[in-house]
Amino acid sequence: MIKNKQISIVVFFFFLIVSGCTQIEKKVLIIGIDGMDPNTTEKLIENGNLPNFKKLRDSGSFLNLNTSNPPQSPVAWASIATGTNPAKHNIFDFIIRNPKTYLPELSIIKNLGGTKYGQNMKGEAFWKISSKNGIPTTVIRWPGSFPPDKIKGNMLSGLGVPDINGRLSGYTYYTQNEIKKDLTSPHKKIQIQIDENNIIKTEIFGPSTKKFGEIIPISTELIIQIFENHIILTVDKKEYEINEDEWSEWIPVKFNYGFGKKINAIFKVNLIETKLFEMYATSLQIDPLKAEVDISSPKSYSNKLAKEMGYYYTLGEPEEIDGFNEGLLPKEAFVSQTEEIINERDFQFKYEFNKFLKKGGVFAFVFDTSDRLQHLFWDSNTIDPVLLKYYKHKDKLLGEILNKIDDDTLLIILSDHGFSKFEKQVEINTWLYQEGYINFDEEISLKDSKPLFQNVDFSKTKAYSVGFNGIYINEKDREKEGIIDKSKKEDLVNEIILKLEKMTDKDGKKPIYKAYRKEEIYSGDYLDNAPDIIIGYNVGYRSGYKSPIGGFHENIISKN
Q: Which residues does residue 414 pair with via DSSP β-bridges, in sequence order?
């Protein structure tokens, strides 16, 4: 949605450059709402639920645009930021592969070792163009902007910011119930013991360190005194009273590495139950007051923001989706947490928006909780009350914005993709195995196979899938154990595409709308990094959860 003019972000800044402008009278306000679905928005406008979006539509433009290929958040937000296709910005999927190891890696975070990080996104984002031309620029929580770029203004990174363990999530769950250990999970489930004084002595685990040649996690003690409907939690000699069915305040914690070195973090806990004890702790967030890793530019900005509003969620995707999906975090607790996050985002937006009204320039802010809520509560036939509440909340915020901006403000509200139903999951690696393109190194059932291609014999494998939409040919001199000559690669790609597009479900439906050769949809310096085949799914189908990380399911197609 655009107020006043139809003009793309990148074209707008290109105009400034070629015209020699270094000062800007017009203000540019860019609001991203992750996953804002155009069909849902239009229905809610017509039903009278979004009066301010209706006002914006009627006074400006309402355009239903194509998203990126594939339609994934990191790919789309990188395309919006740079105005280019994936082969020019180098983001092709949430998950990419290392051709030298075949192992999956995250595209939105590039670990260079320890606490050093880099960006996979290339190209020139609009905030670099505006900064280069002396335009005051503020960018808050743009996905894929970690580590933050140095700009003429302030930047706070969004999706891609890790926890203090270098992961995108990692809850801790404490329970009296017997638990099954899972050493491959980033999450921790701890079975606790209650002594005769109703006290629990347990730990929360931070980063790992090497001691006597062994990698061990560093922990800090938690002491929990249990009462009828609440607890007293003691961390680093400070007490926190937490009521049942409520989230705690922010709890700062230190992890002692020895030799005076400490890692600071913050977290929250939700006390689920005291009778049969259950407590849920969020991922350990980077402490914005004492950040070990730069999450903002300048570095002091995250600290300044915390002094204005108190501690806040710094993790790129802080919503505790895994805990909710796994049945550990009740729906009420999950929704309550998302509302806290929404309130934090509102504060951050208004804090910068009020400054933007005075100084002008460029202000870009991305709201992304909408994406998480729709992944969990989407219904093609009706709109869930949780989602309706979110859309109406954004409409109210838009009303406040429209009342304050002037005619010299270019307002752009945009999204990275829409939403649709996800009824069936498709496991591409299972299909490649059954079609003879993947071979195992021993006779083993699909059920017993392990993730990360642990059972795959790449010396006999022609193609494999990593990520949610990509297939890679096991090409000689490119992959570690590549066996396909470059001269024979195109024939193999065409053969796989032909078979993919003929795949049918039990009811005769086709899961795959179209499979694309990378050369037909991408062009740019990073084309070689793209998957050789990009899969576009029909409505109702999507990649399963095993294939993206080099795993296999018993069935090619199964219910989500």
A: 32
**Residue 334: how many CA atoms within 13 Å on its side-chain side?**
20
pLDDT per residue over 54-66, tens digit each?
A: 999 999 989 888 9
The CA distance from 34 to 49, in Å, is 19
Handedness of CA 170, 176, 181, 183 (dihedral sign): positive
Whether the full predicted model's pTM is greater than 0.70, yes or no, is yes
Question: How does pLDDT run across 363-392, given as a tens digit for each residue?
Answer: 999 999 999 999 999 988 899 999 999 999
The full length of the chain comes to 560
User: Tokens representing 560?
Assistant: 């989500």
Exposure pattern of 494-518 as b/e (b: 16+ CB <10 Å)? eebbeebeebeeeeeeebbeebbeb
Do the Cβ atoms of 70 and 451 come closer than 8 Å?
no
H, E, C per residue of 514-559: EEEEHHHHCCCCCHHHCCCEEEEECCEEEECCCHHHCCCCCCCEEE
Element (H, E) at 100: none
Q: Is the pLDDT of residue 6 over 90?
A: no
